[in-house]
Design goal:
The structure holds two protein chains of two kinds.
Chain A (H helix, E strand, L loop, with lengths): L14 E5 L7 E7 L2 E12 L12 E8 L14 H14 L11 E11 L4 H15 L9 E8 L2 E4 L3 H4 L4 E8 L4 E11 L1 H30 L3
Chain B lengths: L8 H13 L15 E5 L7 E7 L2 E12 L10 E7 L15 H17 L8 E3 L3 E13 L4 H14 L2 E6 L2 E10 L7 E8 L2 E4 L3 H6 L2 E7 L5 E7 L6 H19 L4
Helix pairs in contact in B: 2-3
The chains are: A alpha+beta, B alpha+beta.
């Protein structure tokens, strides 16, 4: 079965991962998955202000996810949205297990994700970029976090849904995954799926994450390996 | 924030972890056992539908208000449902007055997905004039006491309230709330089941003590045909594929029991 752009069901969109794209940031990355583009910048760890936010036993991790006004067909109104607030939260929960936040109490790390172009899978592209940006900043990590969404269209399991597929999928299931420990750090789903399909979908998503993982590592090597 | 949140949490965590390593819980429940659930319907006079759910000491009230308005441009002949959640400072020393925080937004959006994706409301029947006027169904979740597992209580209360909602009379352009015409068209009864992981143990229906020390929770919503209609992981812990499978299996059984409570 062929998908839009001739993709196979278990195939990712063309993926681009680049580390070190923002000169001012301590770490940064750009991730494109098909027509979805996310840029992430990491600032810190640094002493956190205002001080009332400081935590006595761990680093405060702040994640901000924002869609650029021009990222979709219909203009996105800038500012807070309920969707954006939830994505900030699940992104933070997806990244935190990879970090040793107890190393720097009272410090803060800011992870800022901008979606420049949206064609489905913006939270997953954002997490992929954020995780490379954290590594690029030299922050100690247990593993890279890698993320992809899966769905089911016309009875087939599809990896990495793009916009038009997302409109017709029976379910949308994004995960984030740390390949080394085989641990899932983000799991969401909405749709209508028998439990046995969920299992298949998760296996497919994990496979996709493993491919993305190699691309993330490659991007970091390209930036930091001394040739 | 007022109160003594955080006091003794480290000691308590150790205690709960010790218990969990033996598969035991602080209130002697079995791993998959819920606290006592009480569901009451029609508890508010001014709302078109309402329900109060207690799970143990946790208490949630949901009111449904029905109005008319414009449809979304991409769904011109569908009624509109909006779920909101208010974490009133009445309910917990941790809640503050003001706009909903990320926890309240998450709760509202997860309950929303469970209802929307399972098709509880027959939105096609809520169209008055295509592209111009449709019924708006506002589902507002109000937490009265937070003693853990707000997700399941809110979802159960929301579905019960929708099943008992009655439409106000539409006279020309005006709504007459004094007179109810027919029931809101509803079809399914989705149920949300939440687990917390403490140490290596997975417990359903975490109480507040358990939520304070858990590293991860997973909420699973099921339709009447046992299909999964929503999943949401919460907290900073991680999950394995085996754990997800195990939780979904247990949750299907639990959801069948709980669905009987919606009348």
């Amino acid at each position: 079965m062929k998908r839009l752009n001739g993709r196979k069901p278990g195939e990712l969109r063309p993926v681009v991962v680049k580390a070190g794209v923002i000169e001012q940031a301590d770490g940064s990355a750009l991730v494109s998955m098909g027509k979805t583009t996310a840029v992430a910048a990491v600032y810190g760890p640094a002493i956190l202000h205002p001080r009332r936010l400081q935590l006595s036993d761990r680093t405060f991790l702040k994640t901000v996810y924002a869609m650029a006004p021009f990222s979709t067909t219909e203009r996105v109104r800038p500012g807070r949205s309920r969707r954006g607030t939830e994505i900030c939260m699940v992104t933070r929960h997806a990244l935190e297990p990879a970090l040793f936040l107890e190393e720097n109490p009272k410090a803060g790390i800011g992870v800022y994700i901008d979606i420049l172009q949206a064609d489905s899978g913006t939270r997953t592209a954002g997490i992929n970029a954020a995780s490379v940006a954290l590594a690029d900043a030299g922050i100690s990590m247990r593993d890279l976090v890698t993320s992809v969404a899966v769905g089911k269209v016309d009875g087939e399991y599809f990896l990495d849904l793009e916009g038009e597929e997302e409109d017709v999928t029976k379910c949308d299931l994004p995960i984030a995954y740390m390949p080394r420990g085989k641990k899932i750090t983000l799991l969401q789903m909405d749709g209508d799926m028998p439990a046995k399909d969920i299992k298949e979908l998760l296996n497919l998503a994990v496979k996709g994450c493993e491919i993305l993982y190699e691309k993330q590592k490659q991007a970091l090597k390209e930036r930091w390996l001394v040739k | 924030m007022v109160g003594k949140v955080g006091d003794g949490v480290i000691l308590q965590k150790q205690y709960l972890l010790n218990l969990a390593s033996k598969g035991e819980r602080i209130d002697k429940r079995k791993p998959d056992e819920y606290r006592k659930i009480v569901v009451e319907k029609d508890v508010l006079g001014k709302a078109e539908g309402s329900a109060r759910v207690k799970i143990g000491e946790t208490e949630v009230i949901v009111g449904v208000k029905i109005d008319i308005g414009e449809p979304y441009p991409d769904k011109p002949d569908d009624g509109v449902m909006i779920v909101g959640a208010e974490f009133s400072p009445v309910a917990s020393p941790r809640f503050e007055a003001g706009p909903p925080d990320e926890n309240a937004i998450e709760l509202a959006r997860v309950v929303d997905r469970g209802i929307r994706e399972s098709g509880v409301i027959d939105t096609k029947k809520l169209c008055i004039k295509k592209g111009e006027r449709v019924w708006l169904v506002n589902v507002d979740i109000h937490i009265l006491n937070h003693s853990g597992n707000l997700m399941d209580a809110a979802a159960l209360a929301a579905v019960t309230a929708l099943w008992n909602s009655k439409m106000p009379e539409l006279k020309g352009d005006k709504l007459n709330y004094e007179k109810k015409t027919k029931k809101l068209p509803v079809k399914f009864k989705p149920i949300t089941i939440t687990f917390a992981r403490i140490g290596e143990s997975l417990f359903t229906d975490p109480n507040l003590d358990e939520e304070n020390v858990m590293d991860m929770r997973l909420s699973v919503a099921f339709k009447d045909d046992d299909n999964v209609c929503a999943l949401q992981k919460g907290g900073i812990g991680t999950l394995s594929l085996e754990e997800i499978e195990k939780m979904i299996e247990t949750a299907i059984k639990k959801s069948k029991e709980m669905r009987k409570l919606i009348a």
